[in-house]
Write a structure and sequence with these properties.
mainly alpha; 2 strands; about 0% strand; UPF0718; membrane
Length: about 325
């Protein structure tokens, strides 16, 4: 949850929920003070797309956050160290496939990966898990199937491309990764005497508010593109195979939408090809602005400055390759 200090007040904070409440209050005021503004076709079109994306994605977001909090509360990090092979080349695919049965959003996968490294898991395997878990878990795949009804090839393409990115980056680290690029994370301080139920509740509340804010931003952006950007502009961008891929890759990095919800935003971008939208779905959970910040805080700035750009290039190339074959 984002908090901003108020000028002149050290203790006062403005949270993302406060900003959202302020926007809702503004809409209510406009409804009574200037109803003609809300009745304009552009505003109605914007609100329709915005509400549709949020309502479709919210159940999957809640389910994903709940599962992530449950795993973080019930599964000890030492389990992964015992379950993974000792050889990095073999540990990478095992850790990547583990993302199928261990769902979690991007925000949860970074600290989990940090815990794995701290407990002796080879960094290559931890990084493979970091990239795979938020992209190929059952919640994300089901959400993608719902967002793209009657198009199972999109689900298959997302699974194959996302797992491919995780494996490539894990194996790449075994070849060129250096220990001095990686700052081992310090153990997180827990609340003394806190019950598992309290830890689960706090983790779910924090992740839901945090991820929900990114969902709102993503839905608002998709609605703005649909309602305000001239159709011919979108058609020109979408009509260029290279430009459409680059634009949606950049959009995925900037929007930083939770992986449980990004499929609904991608589905709303109907002017773009399935391959370019696959790039959006693969890039987002692998590298975005919030992930870079989380990685820098967990593993150090030297790591993030090297890992994020390479991951972006690999994600785009793998997604385009898989899209050309499966879509």
């Amino acid at each position: 949850m984002t908090e901003l200090p108020l000028p002149g007040h050290r203790a006062a904070r403005v949270r993302s929920t406060d900003l959202l409440a302020g926007l809702v209050a503004l809409v209510v005021v406009l409804h009574f003070a200037a109803p003609d503004v809300l009745d304009r076709p552009a505003v109605l079109a914007w609100s329709t797309v915005f509400v549709a994306v949020c309502l479709q994605a919210l159940p999957f977001l809640v389910l994903g956050v709940a599962l992530s909090a449950a795993i973080g509360t019930l599964v000890p990090p030492s389990f992964f160290a015992r379950a993974l092979p000792r050889r990095p080349a073999l540990a990478v695919p095992v850790a990547g496939v583990a993302g199928v049965v261990l769902p979690g959003c991007e925000c949860a996968s970074v600290p989990v990966a940090g815990s794995l490294v701290r407990r002796g898991v080879t960094p290559a395997a931890a990084l493979a898990f970091l990239l795979a878990a938020p992209a190929i878990n059952p919640v994300v795949l089901v959400a993608t199937a719902v967002a793209f009804p009657g198009q199972p090839e999109v689900v298959a393409a997302r699974f194959a491309a996302s797992l491919g990115v995780a494996l490539v980056m894990g194996w790449l680290w075994t070849l060129v990764g250096r220990a001095d690029w990686l700052r081992l994370p310090a153990p997180a301080a827990g609340v003394p005497g806190a019950s598992r139920a309290a830890v689960f509740r706090d983790a779910m509340q924090h992740d839901l508010v945090h991820a929900g804010g990114f969902l709102v931003v993503g839905a608002a952006t998709a609605a703005t593109l649909s309602a305000l950007v001239p159709r011919r502009w979108l058609d020109e961008v979408a009509g260029s195979p290279v430009l459409s891929v680059l634009v949606l890759a950049a959009l995925a990095v900037v929007l930083a939408i939770c992986s449980e919800a990004d499929a609904f935003v991608a589905a709303s971008l109907t002017s773009f090809s399935l391959t370019s939208r696959l790039v959006f779905l693969v890039v987002g959970p692998a590298v975005d602005v919030k992930l870079v910040a989380l990685q820098a805080g967990t593993f150090g700035r030297r790591f993030a400055l090297r890992f994020a750009p390479v991951t972006l290039v690999v994600a785009v190339l793998v997604a385009v390759g898989v899209g050309e074959v499966l879509l």
